[in-house]
Amino acid sequence: MRVARGGVSIGKNNLLVSGLAFPMDILTAALMGLVLFLPALIPNSAAALFGGGTPVDFNRTWRGKRVLGDGKTWRGLFGGVGSGILIGLLMLAIAYLAGSEDGFGYGPFPDSVGVVVCLALGSLVGDMAGAFIKRRLGMARGQKAPGLDQYDFVVGALLLTLLVYPSWVLSTYVEGEAIAGLITLLIFVPLLHRSVNIIGFKMGKKKEPW
To answer: Does 2 score more than 60 pLDDT?
Structure first.
């Protein structure tokens, strides 16, 4: 069976767009790669909203430079990680109530909760690691660092989760068609990062729109 609309048609195993065929399994992997990463995508934005107060580094310096800087605060850390975990738990609750045994792709309970926590916590650990590197390079808070600014939290989330739940990361983002999920993340994240920062700048939550 094939359903067509404009230049797009859906076959049994493929999505056809202007004559190009995309296997549905690959499209599913790409979409799930984004959806399952939500607990790691939310913390950075939430941290900016909750931010302020005592810096995580307590204003300490190392070799004459701040360890992290004023932009990384305890309030932002707890607010950001908590928001990511909350989103993940809501997704799990919906999945289990709907009868999903694998938690919508996070795995069986309680490992699914562990994956969500690792993604949310690893996201901001990676973000702080990025700030640490920027301070060591003598870069001021808010100064552009292409690549590092966009992907530090992605690397942090995936690495921490890989350390604790390696099979989940490999099956979701590396093995076979699951690599489409990782590729989608690498393409989508810079666009999301830019959009969110522009919104935060207009709201007065960020000093720079990047």
So the answer is: no
DSSP for 44-82, please give it: HHHHHHH--SSBTTTT-EETTEESS-TT-BHHHHHHHHH
Closest of 33, 165, 174, 197 to residue 105, by C-alpha: 33
> What pTM was computed for the model?
0.81
Q: Which residues contact 122 (CB under 8 A, 6 or more apart)?
A: 40, 153, 156, 157, 158, 159, 160, 161
CB 126 within 8 A of CB 80: no
Name which of 126, 122, 179, 180 is nearest 148 in CA terms. Answer: 126
Residue 134 · residue 142 · CB < 8 Å? no
| Cβ atoms 100, 66 nearer than 8 A | no
List pLDDT tens digits, range 49-62.
888 899 999 999 99
Contact assessment for residue 95 and residue 85, using Cβ atoms and an 8 Å cutoff: no
Helix, strand, coil % in the chain, rounded to nearest 5: 60, 10, 30
